[in-house]
Design brief:
The two termini are about 40 Å apart. Helix content is about 50%, strand content about 10%. The strands form 2 sheets. It has a 6-stranded parallel sheet, with helices on both faces. A 3-stranded mixed sheet has the order 5-8-7, with helices on both faces. It contains 15 helices and 9 strands. Helix 4 packs across helix 5 and helix 13 crosses helix 15. With about 375 residues, it is of the alpha/beta class.
Length: about 375
């Protein structure tokens, strides 16, 4: 066994109705003035106002920024950071899916250390602790409430940059499945497959360890058993909670094992064509799982049986079967079958492949991958 390290330096609360504990958590953090970063949908639904009301009743001042978009941009980070500094808040609450959390982490960096988030691209650039952060996910997908990454779109380059530092991990994560019950079926499906991809890629990564494997396996089990029932009925709180915890474990897994070709290739899809991250991942997944089958060391059977509604024996299984199962799952959840259906065109493939090859995830993908391979995979997924 190769050497490995891990830590889970967080306070994580899981339970229905946990949103009511936000003021208590804020006080544990030592905050007196909250800055809530969220999106327009949650703002319209009144969830942002509900959080503010609870905090203010507890004597905690609040301000908010609710302009985060899917695939959030450098410009959005700059606007949110300016608003944070102007209001004088001393901690941040990230409320929503991966986009508000990515923005909140980025604001936590630039509000503390200055400059543009582009200066912190890559690993080892964040000099120390960021502005204290509480994360409250409202989707079962990104696992961003427990990850060490912030992904921000730089439109000047049509590029999704990644900031990596364990200093980005929020101090507290509050998981409340009741927040997931209003998600549209399309969002629930894309986010759920995104979480599954996190677990799957972490599990087969070259950087996987016994710790990340344990997190990834439990994530695959929870997601595989619940994604169909959750997408079918988002008011099924038990299925929603299992998805939320599965997403959490998947996030922990990939924070320590990284990901693979699916994420390396999906980021350019989103950057060039503004395709939602989870949708891009889901479309690419069967093609890349088929490509990686050559490198399977026995984990594909376990993945298959976690996801399938009809588990099979080792004698019945061939590694090529997993891609077909995932294609069928996508179809049943209403995920588009190919990149062409979401507006992707082949003329950008060369530039997209260049960007994919810059990702550190290529290096830990279980099968070695060249630019020519990436181009081939894009064409197959089109």
């Amino acid at each position: 066994m190769k050497a490995f390290t891990f830590s889970v330096p967080q306070n994580i609360m899981v339970g229905k109705g946990n949103l009511k504990k936000l003021p208590e958590v804020a006080k544990k953090l030592g905050g007196t003035h909250a800055f809530i970063i969220s999106g327009p949908h949650l703002n319209k639904m009144g969830i942002v106002a509900s959080c503010e009301e609870g905090l203010e009743k507890a004597g905690i001042k609040t301000d908010d920024f609710t302009e985060t978009e899917g695939n959030p941009s450098v410009e959005t980070v700059e606007k949110a950071a300016a608003a944070f500094k102007e209001c004088g808040a001393d901690f941040i609450i990230a409320l929503g899916g991966g986009s508000p959390m990515d923005v909140a982490k980025a604001v936590g960096v630039v509000a503390k250390y200055g400059g543009s988030i582009t200066q912190y691209e890559g690993g080892g650039k964040v000099p120390g602790d960021i502005i204290p952060l509480i994360a409250i996910p409202t989707t079962a997908g990104t696992g961003s409430e427990v990850t060490a990454f912030s992904v921000i779109t730089d439109h000047s380059r049509n590029y999704k940059l990644t900031v990596f530092s364990y200093k980005l991990i929020p101090a507290y994560a509050i998981l409340d499945a009741e927040l997931l019950t209003t998600a549209p079926a399309s969002v629930a499906a894309a986010c759920g497959i995104d979480a599954m991809v996190h677990a799957l890629e972490a599990y087969i990564s070259k950087d996987a360890s016994p710790f990340s494997d344990a997190m990834a396996e439990k994530a695959l089990e929870l997601i595989g058993k619940n994604i169909r029932s959750y997408v079918a009925d988002r008011t099924n709180v038990e299925a929603a909670e299992n998805m939320l915890v599965g997403s959490l474990f998947a996030g922990i897994a990939f924070s320590w094992a990284r990901l693979g070709d699916v994420h390396a290739m999906s980021h350019p899809v989103s950057a060039f064509f503004n395709v939602p991250h989870g949708v891009a991942n889901a479309i690419l997944l069967p093609t890349i799982v088929d490509y990686n089958a050559l490198a399977d060391t026995g984990k594909y059977l376990k993945i298959y049986n976690y996801i399938s509604q009809s588990p099979i024996s080792e004698e019945e299984f061939d590694s090529s079967m997993l891609a077909g199962l995932l294609q069928d799952l996508n179809e049943s959840l209403g995920i588009p079958a190919g990149l062409e259906e979401v507006g992707v065109t082949e003329d950008k493939f060369d530039a997209m492949a260049d960007d994919a090859m810059k990702s550190g995830n290529i290096a830990v993908n279980p099968r070695s991958t060249t630019k020519a391979d990436v181009l081939m995979l894009y064409r197959e997924a089109l």
